[in-house]
Structures are given as C-alpha cells and as structure tokens.
C-alpha cells in the first residue's frame, strides 16, 4: 500500500511521497519507517518530533509540526479507525464445514459460510452467507446467524435467537440463556420457564463472557449498531437502542430499556424496570436507581482517597442525618 | 390444552368457556386469541381492557374488570410461573451418548441420560437418570451429576464436584476451578493447591458465566433450592443457604457464609469471612463489609445525580470530617 | 509421607514421632488422625485443643499449646501453602495428542505436552514441554504456550498471544479477544481493528471467565508472577506489574498501568489511562478515578447500613453542597 493509495482511499490530504509503501500501523512511539501512525489528541503532539513513522494521520492544524509525511483530515481518529482494517492480519476460518463439526441435517448453512472444528449447529438453525461459526461454538435450534456475522470460538447461542448481519460475538459469550425468573412458592422458588427469545440487529458487537438472557415471554432486543464490551450482563426483556455502547462489567437488571446513542461506562449497574432516554452518558460504576428522562451525564459513588482518610468520611456519611439536624438546630438559635 | 384443563391443573377458578383451547402464554399487550395471559401487579390492571387473550390469570378482586375469561387465584404470579412449564418449547437433547462425545470407559452414565456432541466425561464421573450433559461441556473425574440435572452446552465442571437432582447449570458456568489462594513467599506468590471440592444440593439453578470455586481444604457448599444468576463469583469455602437467591454480577469473597431465604440483588460485593443470617435482603451494588446478624434489608452506595451535581456532593464527601469539626466548633460557641 | 520427611522437606522443627505417616491435609476442625493441619492465625489457637490431627504446622510460640505433634516454623502459612502441593490429587491429563483433538499440521507440539479431547490448535501455534491444553480449549494461530503451562478445559486463546512458563489458565478465560475500540463515524461506531496481541510472563495464574483483551496496536502485558482471580476484565493495552494480585469481579479500563506488588481487592474498577505505582493496595469495590503515585491503601464507597438508615444518609449526600453553604453562612455570622 502506498501513501498515495491511502490518501485516496480515506480522502486524506497527503503532504509527502505518494509512491512510498507502508506495511503497518503503529503508535507514534513505536512506528518504524514502514509504518504509518496517527495523532488524534493534541496532548501527544510532542511525540511527533521523535517519530520514525513513514507518515502520520493528523489534523491539518498540526501538520506543520510533523517532521515526516502527513495525511491530514478533520477527523484523524476516524481515519485511523478505518485504516486499521487494512492492516488487520487476523486469520480467517476457511469456508465450508470442518469435518469435526457436528451440523444437523436440518440446519441450513450458506455455501460460503464457515463452520469450525467441533462446532455444533442444531436443527432448524440458519447460517447466512459469509458467516463464520468458530471452533467449539454451539448454535441452538432455530437460531439464525445473519450474513457476514462472525461467531468466535466457544460462543454458546441457545435456541430461537436471531442475530443480524455483520455482527461479531466474542468467545464465551452466551446468548439466550434463561432469564432469572422465579416465583416464590410454598416449597421454595418455582421456575418461570423463559418462553421468549433474543433478537439482535445488524452490526452489533458482543464482548467475551457477556451474557444476554432470553425474554420471559417477549424477546430481549439489541438494536442495530449497539456495541457491548466483555463481562456484561443483560437480563431478560431488556431493550438496548441503536448505536448504544456499554462498557465492561456493567449489569442491567430485567426489563431495562435504554435508548439510542447512549454510553454506559464500565461497572455500571441498572435496577430493573427503568427506562433511559436517548443520548444519556452514565459514568463508571454508577448505580442507576431510577429512570432517566433527560439527555446528559449521570453519576453516583464517592471519590477515592487513602483508606485512612476515607474511613473518616465513611463514618461521617452514616451520621449525615444527625449532622443535618445539628445544623438545623444551630440555625434556629440564630 | 383447554381452559378447563388449566383451571383444574393449577386449581384456578374459571369464569369462561371450559372447552376453549389455548396454545400459548403471552403478556396482556401481546396475547392473541389463542393465548392465555396473566396480571399479577395491580398497576397494570388498565391493560386488561385492551387484551385479546383467551383468558387471564388474575386475583379474584380484579376479575370483574376483565373483559375476557378469567382464571382466578390468590397468587396469580405463582400460577403464571407454573403454567410457563406447559408452554415451554425448549428442545431437549435426545437420550443416549452422541457419537461425537468422549466418554471415559470409567464413567457411569444412566441409560436414559443424554450426553451431547463433543461433551467430555472423565473417569469416575457419574451421570444420573434423566440427566443431560450439553454439547461441548466437560465433566471432570469423579464428579457426580444428579438425576434430572441439566448441564447446558459449554459448561465446565472440574473433578470431585457433586451436583444434586434437578439442577440447571447454564452455559460457560465453571464449577470447581481453583480457589484464589496464595501465600506470599520470598520469591513471589506461592500457590495453595485447592484440595476441597464443591457440593451442590438439589433444585439449584446456576447462571451463565457464573463461577463457583472449589474449597481450599473443605468443600464450597450450595444448599438445596438456591438460585444463582449470571456472572456471579462464589469464592472458595463459601456456603449458600437453602432457597437463597443471588442476582447477576454479585461477588462473594472466600469463606462467606449466607443463610437461608436471603436475596442478594445485582452487583453486590461481600468481603471474605463474614456471615449473613437467614432472611436478609441486600439491595443492588451494596458493599457488605461486616457480618449481618439481624434479618432485614441492607444497603450502601450513593444516589444517582447529574454528573455536575454529583461532583459537588463528591467533593464535600471528602471534606465530611472537616465539616463535622466546623459544626462542633460552632456548637461549642453557643 | 512421614512427619520426619515433611519436617526435612519444608525446614520445619518437628516435636513428635518422625516415623508417623500422614496422607492428608485438613483444617484443625476436620483433620483426622492421618492428616496434618496448620494454624497461621492466632485467633484460632483455641481450636488446637480439640484437633485430632497427627501434627500441626504452627509458629514456635504456639507449640506449647498444641496437644499433638508440632511442625514449627516462623511462617506457618507459607509452609502450609507448600505442603498443599504434596496432597494435591488433581488428575493430570495424559501426555500426547488425544485422537479427538484437532491439531493443525502447522502447529508445533512438544513430545511430552498434552492436548485434550476436542481441543483445537491452529497453525503456527507452539505448545511447550510439559504443557497441557484441556478438553475443548482453543489455541489460535501463532500463539505460544510456555513449558509446563496448564490450560484448563474450554479456555479460548486467540491468535498471537504469548504465555510464559508454568502459567495456569482456568476454564472459560478468554485471552486476546478484541479490545473495545470504536470511533464515532457518521453512520455509527466504526470498529478499530485490534492489531496488537497479549504478552503474559511466567508463573501467572488467570481465573475462570476472566478476559484479557489484545492491544489496539501494541500488546496488553501481564508480567511474571501476577495472579488474577475469576471474572476479571483487563482491557486493551493494560500492563500489570510483577507479582500483582487482582481479586474477582475487578475491571480495568483500557491502558491502565499497574505496578509491581500491588493488590486489588474484589470488585474494584479502574478508569482508563491511569497509572498505579508499585506497592498499592486498593480495597474492595473502590472506584479508582485517578493515578496513584504513592504506595499505601486506597478506598472509596460508603459503609453498609440498614436500608432505612442508609436512605436518610443517601438523601443528605445529595444535599451536601447546600449543607456546607449553610454551615459557612452560620460561621460568617459568628
């Protein structure tokens, strides 16, 4: 790939030798003479001076500070994101059904799909064109895997789950396990069999060890373009809106409804049966205890301190009602 | 199934056509004329008016508001739970050992048990009558799976683990991995090999990606009827009492003892070596830092606010000791 | 094994019959006459009186209180840890490649390594001497597994991951899944393909269902002797220092740098791009929102209370800014 081809492909303004070839993409600090690099945060502009990269993707305003060739654009982070696809050397599974796979005769597999070794595909399942089912993965009865969707090794998808096109599901994710529904009975908990499914749109990414439970009666729904990190729990009957991003270790209780274009940082918890409107950002480890009806940023928690200092604040937290009463008494005396 | 049969089976009082047949169970909003539905929360009573359901399971007090046939009972939620079993269409694995399974000649498999494709069952393991081991699951040496217990695809159960009857273990759960035990040594951490096992009672449900570690010397114990959601961590030597429920993303440190009939909401954390008595409820994301000796409800954390408002409170939290001192100084001056 | 052999092997001072043989290791309460036991916490010294153990590993200061034979040492916990290895009966996988494994002809497997049933090893992968790949595990292209490293059943390791010697990786762990990197584009999130790998040192332990993502451009790095519990999320480009311990349910956002000899308790969350120096302890469920440059112990959160009491404090927390203003107004009037 030449710098000229890169510039044309991603609509970048090249200042440098268009014929120069590059073979990799690296940080400013580690790039060598065969790599391109990028600068998207002005804070790191000083790293330009020492870079050995062949060329740097950056904002036009910073081009003059760069000692090597530049590929300028108003959104260098986006151009960087797009160029990663060119340099991705991830191995692809070969087309066809591996001889060690177990595919039911009642499953429908596209000719150009790929089924890895020891993968199991049950009756009534459909695997679309160009889709890939990794080694040791499991696809349940009547589950649909859309075109171009990539299921990584070890993923388990229960019956009656529908994934759209171009999704990526990382290893050990579980889609369609039973929602956690039980009624108290005279002899203990009685299971509410989970009769719904899971419905996932197009272009959804689901992280490793993430669990998305099937609905109790209706489906749990993940809309197009949502991105979900590792170790996230999405309980039964949740609905996640379009292009919403959920970071790792977040847990959503049952029937949580989240709008479009939201971002939940890591470790957030949402109690059940609340609704979060479009355009909400929730900061890390926040406990969302009620519905959110206005876009904006929301938080909870307390700031980190040394354990010694924190203990003092924590004790006083328990006394806050009394502190407020003492303050009110003093005010009255004035 | 007719309404009359339903009424008789679950001891419901039918007001309607006993011969009418139904084939599904759905919410009031989505039920069609072949479905029954249910109403357990008075808050949703207004949805009765528009339902197209054939009949509705509800409390006798609400029957008069229902425009369609009614199946009345004092506990409609329990009746709903029980009726889900009738409409569950989850595919069952066929009896017998799948040819792609790897079963040690030293394992004992009941004739009517089911071992799925690519499942591995090691020597000394026992799989009881009617039990089912899902595709790609692993059952370690000398592990016992009780009668009617259902192990979903991909589950890993290490050696010397005992599960009782009628349990359900969801995909990617790990039972019996090493507890996190290390002693500081002169050259770094020295592993404490975990010599205990895991002992799980009857009628226990274990969620997807949940981990229950083996004990250091004695067993980690889960008692009959406990229900555990997804992504829960139960460390070595914990003991979970009868019919206790633990929601998703909760983590219990080593040697936590929890009594019977407790409920831990999602994202709770329990420090090690504490004891929680019977009948305790812990609200979501609570940090349990000491033993609980009285039944009741317990909490910690701070309420959610806009990030802008939260920042102000968070700063003042760090100053609480100083605020208390200033207040005390003022009180002295009075 | 005789008491004399134990004393010699671990440099313990025996007071008792050197010829007596023992076959197990148990707690003071459950040890029988064929077991040794240990006492490392003075708090439990009273349990010595009733023990039926053949001998007890303990501190010399407590030896006089012990009614049975003693194995004295200045660090009884370390001696206990080392002796667990002697009594570990965990089954080992037999050497060689199981006939149901799928090993690429382009993989290099040491003669004395073990590849379990249904394990998949891709081209370019290398499995070192004495290493063991569990049943249903997956080893991606060009991934290296060091000598003596033990991969438990069901683990998934993507391509271009390097593990050192004598590591242990527990079931369902995922090493090398894509980091959670996306750039906002005009039509939604655009994936940043993750071009880095994961590099893991020697003697590292990784818990069940723990996820360690591959780097965006450079590698995610875990240094020698680090120990990581279950259900931990380590995002792309993190670096974990030597002998650092991370307990269960902890989540590290991208590019977190943690020094050597740190301990993070369970449920900790660390925001991205912060640095934690050597020798830091973080208490359970702490939200680490900034870099830590001084060794010591750090905390956040609020103490547990009854839900009734907690609600009062929580309401006042939201009013802290106003409380501080009222206090300042009173002070002014003095």
Q: What does this protein look like?
A:
3 copies of one chain form a homotrimer. The first copy, chain A, is α/β, with parallel strands linked by helices and 334 residues long. In chain A, 14% of the residues lie in helices and 28% in strands. Chain A has an 11-stranded parallel sheet with strand order 6-9-12-15-18-23-26-29-32-35-37, with no helix packed on it. A 10-stranded parallel sheet of chain A has the order 7-10-13-16-19-24-27-30-33-36, with no helix packed on it. In chain A, strand 20 (182-185) and strand 21 form a beta hairpin. Chain A is flat. The termini of chain A are far apart. The relative contact order of chain A is 0.06. Chains in contact: A-B, A-C, B-C. Strand 38 (305-306) of chain A pairs antiparallel with strand 37 (296-299) of chain C, so a sheet runs across the interface.
